[in-house]
Amino acid sequence: MRRLPPLKRILVWLVALAGIAFALPNVLTREEAAELPAWLPHRQVALGLDLQGGSHFMLRAARSDIVAERLETIANEVGKSLRDADIAYIGLSGEGQSITFRVRDRSQLSAARERLKPLTAPVEIGGFGSEPISEVVFDSAEPDELVRLRLTDEGIDYRLSLAVAQSIDVVRRRVAEVGATDPLIQRRGDDRLIVQVPGLGDPQRLKDLLSQRANLALRMLDTSVPVQRAVEGQPPSGTEVLYSFDDPPVPYLVEKAPLLAAANYVSAQPEPDASGESASVAIKIDAASQQRVAALAAQQPPRDAAIVLDGQVIATLKLSEAVNRDTLRISADLPTEGATDLAALVRTGPLPTPLTFVEERTVGPGVGGDAIADGLKAGLVAAIAVAASMIFFYGVFGVFAVIALALNIVLIIAALSLSGATLTLPGIAGIILTIGVAVDSNVLIYERLREEVRGAEPLRRTINDAFSRVFSSIFDANLTMLIASAILFYLARSGSGLAVTRRNRSGRRSATPSTV
After folding, report:
1. What residues pair up with 309 in beta bridges, in sequence order?
2. How many CA atoms lie within 13 A of 189 on its CB side?
């Protein structure tokens, strides 16, 4: 048997000791692991949703929302471009995927089309080999003074894909606000996101945070006309009627252009009152906005403003009382929990598009605890049975195999801890499979060694021959295990094999086991 060079021996021992060090925190509680010396690793293996319980959500971005927003944006740009060019128009509106308007003076029709050409310029979408796309195109020539622009399907697909990609960061920040660790947030298809949060104690709070777009704005109230007249007729230009969350809702006439929006907020914190039963939200605003807000706050008589959240008024306030230098304070008799959530929404920023829940699964801590116990029991029984069999059939060589097998398991746990990978039920099955394949390799070697030792060759050469002649079989076994591991990895990502509580879209709960 060949002797290992000293450098390789040292490397083997270092790898073994490092594996033991990284695996050590997993035999301790979280509190005990936190008390380990600073020079030792503290990270434990992250347990998956099926082991420690938690929640699984699937969220969807609606294509119709993207279309509606793009219609509004393009219509505003069309109106601004025509006004800047002194081109009179009427009937600017959007329907389906088209925006139409009429030019009052037919002689300006060509000038209007020329003015709007920049809107139809191709857009670079990025990515290797990607060609520019046109988001807006002119429809075929229309009669009279009618001009029609159409949103292209590829442009809408691009905006939808971009919105979903941008939503991942916002969702990750909101998940962090509920104190969740090791969440799994993945894109699924063109318009969906998967959010898995193991060990989540309050799934309803996270669901409430994710269900809101959280577009919070400070908008000035318009008192030039009575609100009821604006409701019954046409609001003044640059204003719109919004309603409060009250029951029945109260109408307010507000300016469309926000005084403060998400881009102007630096931070937000809840501030409980003396009783502790309600709280306000203090929002820090950037330096660029402070002078503009201070100028309006100093006007006489004092002007009123509205706090608008996703198109609804949540509070009205005196601007001079609500803004103090760099701080906007929202006092709306909010419960402490509501103020905390509102501050969290401001900190994490708005979603680029609304997300709706299409699927929800909940695994209780009890189910996860039972899964851990069953998995550990299965692994322990398998390990004891294998160790006893190896020692019984192969004696001292069996002891060596058991020691190597134990170190193999330690290294697997260390690798999981170091990489931050999540351990699931399929993962435990994979570890048990690893035990079997590792033992199978030892059995092949030892049985071949028994055959070789019957010859007259020296022992060292016999051992070398035994190792070399079973290599192809061992390689085949490990390749088979790699294929099986890939299948288990797919099952873990798809969430199969969990007994879950589903909440359908109507809100009813039903216990249904997922099946493979």
Report:
1. 216, 312
2. 9
Q: What's the pLDDT score for residue 269?
A: 92
Do residues 514 and 497 make contact, with C-beta atoms less than 8 angstroms apart? yes
Beta strands in 62-159 (DSSP E): 89-95, 98-103, 136-138, 146-151
Over the stretch 27-79, which tens digit does the pLDDT of each residue have? 887 778 778 888 788 888 877 777 777 888 999 999 999 999 999 999 999 99
Please name the helix (run of DSSP H) or strand (run of DSSP E) that holds residue 115, with its range, or none: helix 109-116
187/195 Cα distance (integer angstroms): 9
Q: Which among 487, 489, 514 has a CA at the least distance from the CA of 500?
A: 514
Q: Is 240 left (phi over 0), alpha (psi -120 to 50) or beta?
A: beta
In sequence order, the β-bridge partners of residue 253 are 241
Please name the helix (run of DSSP H) or strand (run of DSSP E) that holds residue 342, with its range, or none: helix 336-348
pLDDT tens readout for residues 297-356: 888 788 899 999 999 999 898 888 888 888 888 886 778 888 899 999 999 999 999 999
In sequence order, which residues have a C-beta less than 8 Å from that of residue 452 and are 6 or more positions away? 462, 463, 465, 466
- The one-letter amino acid at 471: F
Region of residue 62 (phi > 0: left; psi between -120 and 50: alpha; otherwise: beta): beta
Distance (Å, whole) CA 281 – CA 293:
18
And the tokens for 29?
A: 């509680």
Q: Which tokens hold the place of 141?
A: 């020539």
Model confidence at 271, in pLDDT bands (50, 70, 90)?
confident
Using DSSP bridges, classify how beta strands 46-47 and 422-423 pair: parallel, antiparallel or unpaired. Answer: parallel
